[in-house]
């Protein structure tokens, strides 16, 4: 089968044997989202697990084969939940498989992913798609959509509260929609005027546009202006620089909660007093459970979660898709389609 191969921090189009596993299903990939995490592999921040590694953890397609006892059958349209937990540990047993202590695999991270004509996955990781959800949308829901649902659930948000969403990229646009649907007032933070329209369309009540690289310094004051001096109940952090994290924490209301989702190579240094005096809380959120993906798909099918797709590329143009992501030109997600 045709596949995009990662070797020495570079991608090439090549051939691989089609996946063959009796105990797992095989999916004909129809769409695979190109995620910011791909850059971490290409920059050497995350080493690939083996040679000729296939990236792509945002996958949707059609079941090509499945074990006899599977709940999906050949021909089913499915989204692929990319995390394969051990199924035994306390996290897995309580529905928190994305923090499994002994994971079996994560497709596109530690096992071959979706930048190929076929991918293997446990049948239990395949979620049937309603007709109204396209493969392209489903692939994006299988990363940023479910991540947004997970972060909002973890924060236990409630209607009538205020949330800052820092970063109007693929995940940010999803978080804005989920929070707006849950009845929160969302203040988006964007690094350019060109993203205001997207944030508004997603449901942001206001968007703060940062001026230049130091824009975060003024963020706490601007948030207080927008909230009668109170600050925000939540801060969803998708940018992950020290400046952005500190500005968000500084923008919180008393007992506010910062939810860290994004990361860079930056550390976060904060004086305890800056947290203690307001009883500020910091939580973190990683990926999502299978149930979060099911919720994201249901929300999309009901029209509450729409997926902003920038461009759909054929497999052999994956480099262009990634170059445009790196240049921060992508509005929403680029998707590889077959
Ligand atoms: Zn992703
Ligand atoms: Zn586990």
The structural class is alpha/beta
* Gyration radius, rounded: 20 Å
Largest sheet: 7 strands, mixed
Low-confidence stretches: none
Strand content: 25-35%
Total strand segments: 17
Tell me which ligands are bound.
Answer: zinc ion
Secondary structure tally, helices: 10
Mean pLDDT: 95
What distance lies between the first and last C-alpha atoms, to the nearest angstrom? 12 Å
N to C succession of SSEs: EEEHEEEHEEEHEHEHEHEHEHEHEHE
Helix content: 25-40%
- The shape, in one word, is globular
A few lines on this structure:
The chain is α/β, with parallel strands linked by helices and 338 residues long.
Explain the overall architecture.
- By secondary structure, the chain is α/β, with parallel strands linked by helices.
- Helices cover 28% and strands 26% of the residues.
- The protein is built from 10 helices and 17 strands.
- The strands form 4 sheets. Strands 3, 4, 5, 8, 9, 16 and 17 form a 7-stranded mixed β-sheet that branches.
- Helix 8 links the parallel strand 14 and strand 15.
- The longest helix has 21 residues.
- It is globular.
- The mean pLDDT is 95.
- The site of one zinc ion (ZN) has 9 residues, from helix 2.
